[in-house]
Design brief:
Distance between the termini: 53 Å
Radius of gyration: 27 Å
Largest sheet: 7 strands, mixed
Structural class: alpha/beta
Strand order of the largest sheet: 9-17-16-15-12-13-14
Number of domains: 2
Number of helices: 15
Shape: elongated
Strand content: 15-25%
CATH class of the largest domain: Alpha Beta
Number of strands: 19
Amino acid sequence: METPQNVGMSDLNAESSSLPVDHLSLQSKKNIVLVSHGRPPWYGPDGERISDAFVIGVAGGSASGKTHVARQIVKSLGFIPAIAILSQDSFYKKHTEEELALAHASLYDFDHPSAIDMPMFATCLEDLKACRQSNIPVYSFSEHQRLDETKYLYGPTVIIAEGIMALHDPALRSLYDLKIFVQCDSDLMLARRIERDVKERGRHVTGILEQYLRYVKPAYDNFVRPTAAFADIIVPGSNNDVAIELICTHVRRQLQERSNAFRRKLAVPHLYNSSLSRPPPPPQDGDLKLEILPPTPQVQGILTLLRSTDTPRQDLIFFFDRLATLLVENAMQFLPYCPHTVTTPVGVKTVGQKLNTKHICGVCIQRSGCVLERGFKRVLNNVPMGSLLIQSNSSDGEPLLLQVKIPVVLRKRTSAEDSWVFLLDAQIGTGAAAFMAIRVLLDHGVKQDHIIFVTYLVARRGGIAVLRRAFPHVHIICAAVDNEMKEGWLEGARGEGNPEGSGRRVWLMEPGMGQVSAMSFL
């Protein structure tokens, strides 16, 4: 049912956006995106998706309490990684001039299924369920028209799709993991509608009743109420605390069954595999299929200064930037080039090379990846930058995706497929953050061989071997390869095996063959 309220998604976009913020607060808008503590892995060691988002469909009559039920589910679920409430009101069709005239005269039936773009609704929901990004249409209720702009959305673990026709379309029903119908007495729905429209929307009772009798009530009898037969659960429109609790218990159990944790085995498999009595021999650089910066005297000198505990802070910053510049310059070899003829100032034609790409952008894995950003910008100026905030869970060390701020060009699949992305991070130790970052880019449609991972340091015995098996076409360039990793704790948080809270688990690099001294990026 169309309302004059201008609804929109809780958008934290700015120029680039994503998984929203780190707090849980309900809003008056129908489309809401909420995040609590971050999104855990949704893929397996082979890099393929192994769990979809959990989708709940909530249908019912106008003013039956659908939005209230959706919000109560969110409140009761509590500490869930990421939740999106998606309203079908955003998917009203784009209207013709004749339809607009009827709409402004209150003679257009917005309660009929034909008023909603069901295929677009199903497509957006299918993308979100499959952990891909989607662009939700924006509908202006004051103009009775769908706008050209869209709202970018990515990353919810739980999606609640609510609307009077949420269970009407078979394509939509096939996407739901749980189907709910909110059943409410017709007199109570009418009373709620009158109170709402008079208080919140400044309407007159006469107009409310006329619209209700002409469009709302017939649509409920003919199209909405019959869909209750498809519901898994019938929830009363009032006094429904028990039903909400039962629903949330089921959702929590489903999410627990879909959880995936393999970070330890990714990091040091011999510690968690009883069949391996001792660590396997370290793989050689060629086996890792890495592009290592040529060990020139200049590079060796920079690495020596960076590994030394006596190097002043200002020198560390200067040489970090210098090494980052060298890494990005070498990484440029992975970009496509094509022949290009130019005319010199003396009139001589010379055949050279030029970049043959539509889009280039950079994405740094915060926070350590930011140290490469300045060197990256020295090589590629005026290139859009984005970031991924990935941190380890203090209890088990599993990576959590807390925030996604990507360049605009990656938000749409059509442009993302033609984009080349430089992924920046200080190190690849366990490979957990790198794994998640690459998976995020693939979810957006970036081709695997269009991802160039630039990093200072790689642990030979860490997760790099598993990472290369999962994503063999990703280009990885580093300055050095160290032989071992050691697990330790930093002060600040409790964790598994550290109940007293003396610190959090981190991985430290041990020097590899031919290196100068130990080097750790924390």
